[in-house]
Amino acid sequence: MDDAEFLDPFARLLDGVSSPAQVRAAQGGAGISALWSAISESGFLDALVPEEAGGVGLTLRAVGSLVEGLGARATPAPVAETMVARALLAEAGVATPAGPIVLATGSASRVPLAMVAEHVLLDTGRALLLCRLDEGNRRSAGVPGSLAADLAVSGWQTIERPADGLRPIAAVLRAAQIAGAASRLLDMTVAYANERSQFGKPIGKQQAIQQQLSVMAEKMVMARMAARIGTGYALLPTPAAAATAKSVASAAAVDIAAIAHAVHGAIGISEEHDLQLFTRSLHEWRAADGSESYWSAILGRARLADEASTSADFIRTLSSPA
Amino acid sequence: MFDSFTLRALPPEDEALREPLRALIAERVAAQPIDRRARSWMGFDADLSRALGAAGYLGLTLPKRYGGQERGAYARFVVSEELLSVGAPVAAHWIADRQSAQLILHFGTEAQRQDYLPRICRGEIYFCIGMSEPGSGSDLASVRTRAEPVEGGGWRLNGQKIWTTFAHHDDYMIALVRTSGISADRHQGLSQLIIDLKTPGVTVRPIVDLTGDAHFTEVFFEDVHLPPDALIGEEGAGWAQVTAELAFERSGPERIYSSIVLLDAWIAHIRAHRPDDEASLALAGRLTAELAVLRAMSLAVTARLAEGESPVIEASLVKDIGTGFEQSIPALIADDLGRHPDQPVAPELVRALAFATQIAPSYSLRGGTREILRGIIARGLGLR
Ligand SMILES: Cc1cc2nc3c(=O)[nH]c(=O)nc-3n(C[C@H](O)[C@H](O)[C@H](O)COP(=O)(O)OP(=O)(O)OC[C@H]3O[C@@H](n4cnc5c(N)ncnc54)[C@H](O)[C@@H]3O)c2cc1C
């Protein structure tokens, strides 16, 4: 199956249920039930579940651009997270609960979209715990528009933990979401630059603006290439690949958001403009599951530990797929 | 947008080039001090270039009938990567192998191909690029160096080129010159000429750079008489040819590996002196991650070249980010070393760092400046 054959229906589905107006409503507390039932019915949630277990049996590599598509729409539901959780649960032979599942990669971190999830797959460092979420064990940090929450869970089912835990895969999902939002922001910002006139011509005709947009394009391509390094696996990326993906995508996210706002001027700051749906998400994903500095230190440690190789040798396995 | 940037793998048969090449360069390069290796594509070593030619590592993309290997852009990527990653002195053959040979293959006559290409493949003849002039840097279309047709055939050339890398060591220049009209005609009336640098009337003067090296030059042409077959490609088509040529110049791994010898020397320093320093680890990781992503991007552009396309915009994008990355390395490493003022640093590393620091501004100048590349990207974005 080629990319388009697989992606186009998913993209159309998302456009129907994850438009900017629908994202706003969900972020305002309206819930995600319509969105969730449409996505559940589509079967995409089992994309990563092995065929023997009743899934579609696709690799993360194959669905990477689908995760980018979720980022490109700031979809307010943990679709990618649930896909990964369902695959891990199926592999462990555990029955999967129906609703949205988020991934919590540490005890202290705020978990994106936990306010609209029904379960969490939590990495304790020793095991994975599948826990139900309800009003009692999740607390919003009260950041406007954010559906992230701090969790205090109990009552669980224990599952064997993959060697490197959940954080690498979670970081890669964030990187792919960043890449998707970056691509959307570039389209929006270029379109705006061609539309908005000052000094008698579109601002996009000003060289200073062109140079900023070129840098934005560069950062977008970097974020996307980084994300694809992370998603280039069957399911779980190596920590080095995840570190490459997340450190580059997180760093790019900051610059991309900054340029998008700079070019939009004041209108982009306003609540009514869609820009902020994506730039707010970029900042949240950038920090979630380890920022660029967190992952850089991990990769640096791996690099130093590999005494035999040059940098070129070390990165070669990262920068082209297995 | 920019959908051609996808992850690409190198074919196994091209990967297989690495091991034998490593053996060849190990003995010639490994013993060189770091600060010598840090010069890499500014290091001129004709012996090495001939050895590479003899072993079949040059002309990888050229047809066998011209002495090439008929392997393609991926093979060239592998060989470039191996040479640059250890800091081999590749300057002698680099420009001929990377762009002059492509130009001659695509636009030259059969006689020109048979004359030049086999010698390029053997690593025997070296080329330089005569684009820039004192009044024509970024505004390349304004070149004034002029070739007039002379009676009985051939050309009479007058003018001046500048910043021409290694003209003082090279055999030939491929120059962008005006053959008709005036500089206000811009892209019309430009042509490319192959100039034998030993022709009477050609004067080459090295220009010493801020590191004390002399790798670029100024070149003067005074009534230089050139034969008819000095013209490469079509008269008046020089601009289109130069644009295609620049995609080869801008996309390669050299745009990400210029500071890599320094990076590896610094990593060895950290490993030896303070392997648990969190800030140094984070910096090493950050640079490693960026390098991995840039390599994937460079490989994606190579894939387009391998498919016979001319990815001008993508190549500009990779060159701009790649040179920014290369330039960031010496400044970041200097900061890291300076964070430990009481820790000794090997003199070789100090010299390599000083060299890279001083020469780094050139990374974003040679091959087209940052601003010009961003203008090309903006065109790709539909803004101009
Ligand atoms: C190490 C080295 C090796 C080189 N080797 C060669 C070689 O072998 N052959 C060769 O032909 N050339 C060579 N060059 C020259 C190189 O291609 C030129 O330096 C480059 O094209 C810029 O031209 P310039 O230096 O005249 O700068 P200028 O064109 O004068 O530019 C100066 C500054 O103004 C900016 N600028 C100019 N026009 C614009 C514009 N329209 N919009 C925005 N900003 C603008 C530039 O980006 C730059 O920042 C080499 C240069 C270096 C440093």
Describe the model.
The complex is a heterodimer of chains A (about 325) and B (about 375). Chain A is about 55% helix and about 10% strand. Chain A has eleven helices and eight strands. The mean pLDDT of chain A is about 95. In chain B, strands 1-4-5-8 form a four-stranded mixed β-sheet, covered by helices on one side. Chain B is α+β, with helices and mostly antiparallel strands and about 375 residues long. Chain B is globular and about 75 Å long. Chain B contains 14 helices and eight strands. Helices cover about 50% and strands about 15% of the residues of chain B. The mean pLDDT of chain B is about 95. Chains A and B meet through helix 6, helix 7, helix 8, helix 10 and helix 11 of A and helix 5, helix 10, helix 11, helix 12 and helix 14 of B. The complex binds flavin-adenine dinucleotide.
Describe the global form of chain B.
globular
* Radius of gyration of chain A, in angstroms, nearest whole number: 20 Å
**How big a fraction of the residues of chain B is strand?**
5-15%
Q: SSE order of chain A, as H and E? A: HHHHHEEEEEEHEEHHHHH
For the biggest β-sheet of chain B, the strand order reads: 1-4-5-8
N- to C-terminal distance of chain B? 16 Å
Helix content of chain A: 40-55%
> Total helix count of chain A?
11
Distance between the termini of chain A: 20 Å
Mean pLDDT over the residues of chain A: 95
Q: Say what oligomer this is.
A: heterodimer
